[in-house]
Specification:
The longest helix is centred in the middle third of the chain and has 29 residues. The protein is about 60% helix and about 10% strand. It has about 1000 residues and is α/β, with parallel strands linked by helices. The chain contains 39 helices and 18 strands. It has a 6-stranded mixed sheet, sandwiched between helices. Strands 3-2-1-4-5 form a 5-stranded mixed sheet. A 3-stranded antiparallel sheet has the order 11-12-13.
Length: about 1000
């Protein structure tokens, strides 16, 4: 999939044309030759390469006829350079060889012109992957340049760059870096450390780090290029555009596709300014966009951008150029993914023919096509043909790069997967080990029982796939032969995967990309848990269940936990307030422009918003990097990988409490039950249509229709039986539920603990699980434990002084709000709700304040000293956005005198500073959002946690106004009955449980639709 990168060197020669005395006819011919030459130069500038070439050759033939050798040689050299650019390497080589001896005869052996010819020859051999020949001619060029200009000259520095390019191409990165650094040293000594000529070399150094998998260093060098070149020429220049493109490519390799897209779009914009639309350089970026859309499985957009690039390439370069072949290769890959194998093979074979004709078979691009053809045959279950093509790729790459190079990794891994699928696990292990050797410079052990280092690699994600493949192979080898040794090695390899995932979490920057990483790692942790359960069963050692619990936790809310750790680190790492205010200001601006983009009506402003988001994201990342480098405590706290152990969790619960920690895999549901006395692990196969049953359960729970009530009753017990396949100890009264994936949308209280055979609508008699247990929720055991510790160790510090604040915008006729062209409906009950609850608090002599109607505006809310309230209660409408969870929102009043629109988005809540014990969102669907593997539900709840609330009460669906009011009033009544003061953290879940039980017992709102929507996330 890698796009062909050009390292083409164009030598601009300023030689005076040879003047001679000729006859009139000869003079006329000379005039034609000069015209041809001038036309050629003009066509070259206009990128009309075929016209330029034909004119150079016309001029050349005339000069040769009359033996005007200097002019002839200049035309021939110019023509051959154009042929090289057009990938007509054989013709270029033929012309250069023809003029090589003539150049030394006319100019002398140690002149600039001869050096230029040697350099061009080196370039052709470089493009043909004849690397030794290339180095031979670059060395000849270097000797001449040194003799003419001395060791420290710009001319010598240029040749060092070319030599470095060859070493980079063959994977000898240390040698390449040495030559690039020689170039840097010369330019710095001649022109200083900020000279623009450093830009090209820094770009090449960045490419080295990119090839070695050191993407952050690559990005660092590209950023240096941007600053350097922008200072000289402004941002709108070619080197800056290429640097943005390079950074985008680095993020593609890091699998951070959202960030990559931002940089590639920026590169496109700059290149269109610099070169104009329809330029080759712009086409390069369309290829990059195609790669990004391919990676995020938007194949239609991917192939669309590939064809746009293809049209540009063929129009300028013709249809036989290697860059055209590279696009054919990429298009073939998309066809392969779409299952159009014959069409994919057609594109691959076209690409292969072009590559072989222009470069010969022994080049990396040809190897890449063979790898893709192998993948096509593998998908089509033609394993012998697949292995044949993978081995062709391996042979080519090993001959060019040796045994350590990223290009070798994929074909080895692919062969390993074929053996794995055929249950030949020993062969699979051997080939996975070969792939690891290819990924780690200096690691040579072919013994697959040797665990490789996890902190050295070229490509982190390919390495992760190889390690995961090894771990799975060890496990299935154990399943076949029952050798405990294999099972132990499976676990050790899974632990290596986990260490590598920790590294990836640190270096991934954009939140969307971090969430995407979680989706990748879920399968790894599922297989790791299976291995632990098998080890526990085989050895009867409890430690393996505890490791399985650890793996389950490592799969939960990693992005959220890191964000919370980062927010906490900012507060306690000694970072000056001025910098913290700067961080908050940038975040708020990013949120603002993202909202403007999401609500876009005037599309002429789209690029303006995107540019601002791009610049602000860069500023934000630079500031965070500054925090990490200059405030070691911040880095330590943010990336502290300590996870709560089973004993840690046990220290937070009493004898009557059990934690139910779920992991929902592809085919299995794992349940970890933690009680004061120990840990039990249960594995059950997913029932058929499990996800569909959950979705149906969530829909029929809202209905009164008899057929829906009946289906709810059936599913309530079916899901209970799936999710609680064990009888808990009789003394257990409270459950802390840690859901996973789609389970985050279920109200566990509304499940049935036994089958129900009573009256269809006798809701009071339904065997709701809430009748047996007080239930609360958390996103992970680690989060629950960290908040518990915070409640105990830091709870008395900086305590809010006020107890309660209520907000209800109501939305009457005098206080309307329009969202998405729809009038927001009035919710009369919210005013009564807030007034009643305020009265309850005041009766107990507690502080209780409120904002109602017009006063409950977004503007007024943001003015509040909101972090000085222990409980914040917002009764309003909620909006859940499953596609863009940052646009989930709660609705407040709109102040016509400000820019606030009355919509308090999740993205804005992240920027609010809370210090609350509890936030209650008495609104619709506030617990919903986007369900993501490894992260759970992403929406308002995460924003509230990040803002600083310890507990939340949220809803799972659209709620009824009057019933909601009753639930809320009862909740606060129970809370105030049980708490004479709020000096200690109240147990909110008990008050909510008792309120719901009262609702059920009274009967009027006993249907689960009314009371089970609201869940307590916290304690």
């Amino acid at each position: 999939m890698k796009k062909l990168t050009r390292f083409f060197f164009v030598a601009i020669l300023f030689f005076s044309f040879q003047q001679s005395i000729f006859s009139q006819t000869q003079e006329e011919d000379m005039a034609k030759a000069r015209t041809h030459f001038n036309n050629a130069r003009q066509f070259e500038q206009e990128a009309k390469l075929d016209d330029a070439l034909s004119n150079y050759l016309e001029a050349s033939s005339i000069y040769k006829k009359y033996e005007v050798w200097k002019n002839y040689l200049i035309c021939e050299l110019s023509a051959s350079n154009l042929m090289t650019f057009q990938a007509d390497y054989e013709n270029a080589l033929s012309h250069l060889i023809e003029i090589e001896s003539k150049s030394t005869e006319i100019y002398g052996e140690t002149t600039s012109f001869v050096a230029a010819v040697y350099h061009s020859l080196g370039e052709v051999y470089y493009q043909k992957a004849e690397n030794n020949k290339s180095l031979e001619y670059f060395d000849k060029c270097l000797l001449i340049k040194m003799g003419l200009h001395g060791d420290y000259s710009v001319e010598v520095a240029v040749v060092y760059n070319s030599i470095a390019n060859v070493y980079a191409k063959i994977g000898r990165y240390e040698m390449a870096l040495d030559y690039y650094l020689l170039n840097v040293a010369i330019i710095k000594s001649l022109h200083g450390k900020n000279h623009q000529d450093l830009g090209v070399t820094y770009t090449n150094i960045a490419n080295i780090y990119n090839s070695r998998g050191e993407y952050d260093k690559a990005i660092e060098y590209k950023e240096t290029v941007i600053k350097l070149m922008s200072n000289y020429y402004g941002e709108n220049n070619p080197e800056v555009a290429e640097a943005y493109s390079g950074i985008g490519n680095a993020y593609i390799e890091k699998k951070e596709y959202e960030t990559a897209k931002e940089y590639i779009l920026k590169a496109i914009k700059l290149k269109e300014i610099v070169y104009g639309e329809g330029h080759l350089k712009v086409a390069d970026e369309y290829v990059n966009l195609g790669i990004i859309y391919n990676k995020i499985d938007n194949l239609d957009m991917s192939i669309q951008y590939y064809f746009v690039a293809l049209d540009i390439y063929t129009a300028i370069l013709g249809d036989k150029h290697p860059e055209v072949a590279a696009v054919y290769n990429n298009i073939g890959l998309v066809c392969n993914q779409q299952g159009s194998y014959s069409q994919a093979l057609e594109y691959y074979e076209t690409a292969l023919k072009i590559k072989n004709e222009s470069l010969g078979e022994m080049n990396p691009e040809t190897a890449s096509i063979y790898t893709n053809i192998g993948e096509m045959y593998f998908r089509n279950n033609e394993n012998e043909k697949a292995i044949e093509n993978y081995n062709k790729a391996i042979t080519i790459n090993k001959s060019i790069f040796g045994i350590h190079h990223p290009n070798i990794v994929e074909p080895y891994s692919s062969i390993a997967n074929i053996y794995f699928n055929n249950n030949d696990f020993e062969q699979a292990l051997q080939y996975f080990q070969y792939s690891i050797i290819g990924n780690i410079n200096g690691f040579t052990s072919t013994d697959y029982y040797v665990i490789s280092p996890v902190d050295k690699f070229y490509d982190s994600f390919k390495y992760l796939r190889s390690l995961h493949g090894k771990a799975r192979s060890f496990y299935l080898k154990y399943e076949n032969k029952k050798k405990l040794n294999d099972l132990e090695y499976a676990l050790n390899t899974f632990l290596a995967c986990d260490s590598l995932i920790s590294i990836l979490r640190k270096v991934t920057t954009a939140e969307k990309d971090k969430i995407a990483l979680g989706e990748i790692t879920t399968e790894i942790y599922e297989n790791a848990i299976i291995s632990c359960i098998a080890l526990n069963k085989k050895t009867k050692k409890d430690k393996y269940n505890e490791i399985a619990f650890y793996f389950s936790e490592r799969n939960k809310s990693g992005t959220l936990l890191q964000a919370l750790a980062g927010a906490k680190a900012q507060r306690f790492a000694g970072i000056p307030d001025t910098l913290l205010e700067q961080e908050k200001s940038i975040r708020m601006k990013i949120t603002y422009y993202e909202q403007m983009l999401a609500e876009l009506v005037d599309y002429s402003k789209e690029q303006f918003y995107r540019d601002n988001i791009f610049k602000l994201n860069k500023q934000y990342q630079e500031l965070i990097t500054y925090f990490e480098v200059n405030y070691p405590k911040y880095y330590q706290m943010k990336y502290d990988n300590k996870f709560a152990s089973v004993s840690d969790i046990q220290s937070t619960i009493n004898d009557n409490t059990a934690m139910l920690n779920y992991f929902v895999g592809e085919n299995n549901i794992f349940l970890f039950v933690v009680t004061k006395k120990g840990l039990s692990v249960y594995n059950s196969n997913k029932i058929e249509d499990f996800d569909k049953n959950v979705e149906t359960f969530n829909s029929v729970i809202l209905s009164y229709y008899p057929e829906d009530v009946k289906e709810y009753q059936e599913l309530a017990f079916i899901l209970y039986d799936q999710l609680l396949p064990v009888n808990l100890p009789k003394k257990i009264e409270k459950l802390i539920v840690i859901p996973d994936g789609i389970l985050g949308t279920i109200s566990f209280e509304a499940l049935f603990y036994e089958e129900y055979n009573g009256e269809l609508k006798e809701y009071v008699s339904f065997p709701f699980l809430i009748k047996k247990y007080n239930i609360c929720y958390s996103y992970s055991a680690n989060l629950f434990y960290s908040i518990f510790n915070q409640n105990n160790s830091q709870y008395t510090q900086n305590r809010p002084s006020k107890e309660w604040f209520g907000i209800a915008p109501v939305f009457r006729e005098d206080n309307p709000l329009v969202v998405n062209y729809e009038d927001i409906t009035t919710i009369e009950g919210t005013e009564t709700e807030v007034n009643t609850i305020q009265g309850e608090f005041k009766t107990k002599k507690f502080t209780a304040e409120k904002l109602l109607n017009k006063n409950a505006s977004e503007t007024e809310f943001k003015k509040l000293d909101i972090d000085n309230y222990k409980i914040i209660h917002i009764a309003t409408h909620g909006i859940a956005n499953s596609e863009m969870p940052e646009l989930s929102a709660i609705l407040l009043s709109k102040n016509p005198n400000t820019e606030d629109n009355g919509i308090l988005y999740a993205g804005e809540i992240y920027n609010i500073q809370l210090n609350s014990d509890l936030v209650v969102l008495s609104a619709c669907e506030t617990a919903l959002g986007k369900i993501s593997k490894g992260e759970g539900v992403i929406g308002l709840s995460r924003a509230i946690l990040y803002a600083g609330s310890r507990n939340m009460m949220l809803s799972l669906w659209k709620v009824a106004d009057k019933a909601t009011m009753q639930v809320m009033i009862y909740f606060y009544q129970k809370l105030l009955e049980e708490n004479n003061d709020f000096d200690e953290m109240p147990e909110f879940s008990t008050a909510l449980h008792n309120a719901k039980m009262q609702i059920i017992e009274e009967g009027k709102y006993a249907h689960p639709y009314f009371w089970s929507s609201f869940i307590l996330i916290g304690n």
